[in-house]
Design brief:
Elements: E1 15-16, E2 26-35, E3 38-48, H1 49-100, H2 115-162, H3 169-200, E4 209-212, H4 213-230, E5 234-238, E6 244-247, H5 249-265, E7 272-280, E8 283-289, H6 315-318, H7 324-334, E9 338-344, E10 348-356
Parallel strand pairs: 5-7
Antiparallel strand pairs: 1-2, 2-3, 4-6, 7-8, 8-10, 9-10
The structure holds adenosine-5'-diphosphate.
Residues 262-263, 266, 290, 292-295, 303, 308-311, 315, 320-326, 349 line the site of adenosine-5'-diphosphate (ADP).
């Protein structure tokens, strides 16, 4: 018996009729078919689920392996990424720990071009600066103790001799004079160190006022002229009358007196020292130039350092501690200015101060 089937295409609504075909051995679908426009019957189709189950389980396996591999790769990636991100942070943390304990010998790896790199660079700069300050402080303390030890040794030695009973009265007076000289030296060293400490702590105030540079120079010139004349050195002043400068006259006087005092100490007779003032585009330039012994090129970069002297042996004769220029430098900086030096051995030295108005 043949079943007449409509030639018009039937709607292919092959619905699966099981609730959960995955648990069944077959997939059963049903499709209605019509004959002459009327619903005539249903076609049931069965398909063994083995192949489909196999395919699904294979696909599941693949998906599982792929997911596992993806997850594993992500974890590895996150691990290395976090390592890469946290490693410099951990190194920096350890570096700052070392710094806080006073160990400034910190070396951080070459910084990258990002924020972490900038932070690392800042920590390295801080460590270098602190290290430099520590070394400078140690050298400074060593120099001070050396400076103090020498006069104290003299004082001790001569006090022992002066105490001897059988000593000539004239000799005793001479030894007592040396003791007095050396104790004055110690006290003036301490005074200068105290001044420098005050400058360092910024516990001094700069009381600026408008000063006529020419008049200011003149008053200093007249004060130091006798000492220059006494040594046979000419002192020449050259400054126009119309220059006004914003300075603390008392502090700035100390600057000029220190520089002129050096010119006097380190120049020979029949030489000339010049004091010059000029102004260009609101910048005042002051120069103190001498024709003295000059400073060797190797010493020039250090002469503003504390307790630095070119000729250590000469200092006892000239009485300097190597603090004068350090004080000058601090005072000029406190005025917002800058001091530079040019010198040639046997020709002379020229200090230039520049102050913007
Ligand atoms: P000091 O008290 O020893 O003069 P300073 O700090 O004033 O200390 O100077 C430091 C060193 O610089 C001096 O010891 C000296 O060797 C050198 N110096 C400074 N000024 C001059 C100068 N005008 N001519 C030659 N040497 C100078």
């Amino acid at each position: 018996m043949s079943i007449p089937i409509s030639t018009t295409p039937l709607p292919r609504k092959g619905k699966i009729i099981q609730d959960d075909w995955k648990k069944e051995q077959y997939i059963a679908t049903v499709t209605a078919f019509n004959k002459k426009g009327k619903k005539f019957g249903y076609i049931y189709m069965f398909k063994n689920t083995d192949d489909v189950q196999k395919l699904i389980s294979q696909l599941n396996k693949h998906i599982f392996v792929a997911s596992f591999l993806i997850l594993f790769s992500i974890l590895i990636f996150i691990f290395f990424l976090s390592k890469a991100l946290t490693k410099p942070l951990i190194t920096m943390k350890e570096a700052t720990k070392k710094l806080s304990k006073g160990d400034f010998s910190v070396t951080l790896p070459k910084p990258s071009n990002d924020e972490l790199g900038e932070l690392s660079h800042s920590i390295q700069t801080l460590a270098n600066d602190l290290n430099y300050l520590k070394q400078e402080r140690n050298e400074f303390l060593a120099s001070i103790s050396h400076e103090l030890r020498t006069p104290l040794t003299y004082i001790n030695g001569y006090a022992d001799i002066a105490r001897r009973k059988n000593l000539d009265e004239q000799d005793r007076v001479q030894y007592l004079d040396i003791i007095q000289e050396e104790s004055q030296r110690v006290s003036s060293l301490l005074k200068e160190l105290f001044n420098l400490a005050k400058l360092d702590q910024n516990t001094f105030s700069i009381n600026k006022e408008k000063v006529n540079l020419s008049n200011f120079f003149r008053s200093i010139y007249e004060r130091v002229l006798p000492a220059f004349k006494n040594k046979g050195i000419d002192l020449v002043l050259d400054c126009p009358n119309n220059i006004f400068i914003d300075i603390d006259p008392i502090r700035f006087e100390q600057v000029l007196i220190n520089l002129l005092d050096n010119s006097l100490k380190y120049s020979n007779e029949t030489s000339t020292t010049f004091i010059k003032g000029s102004e260009l585009n609101g910048v005042v330039q002051i120069t103190i130039k001498d024709q003295g012994i000059g400073i060797p090129p190797a010493d020039l970069p250090h002469i503003f350092d504390r307790l630095y002297r070119v000729d250590k042996s000469r200092s006892r004769a000239t009485g300097g501690f190597g603090l004068g220029l350090a004080i000058v430098n601090q005072l000029v900086e406190a005025h917002g200015g800058e001091i530079t030096v040019k010198s040639q051995v046997g020709e002379g030295t020229c200090f230039t101060i520049i102050i913007k108005q």
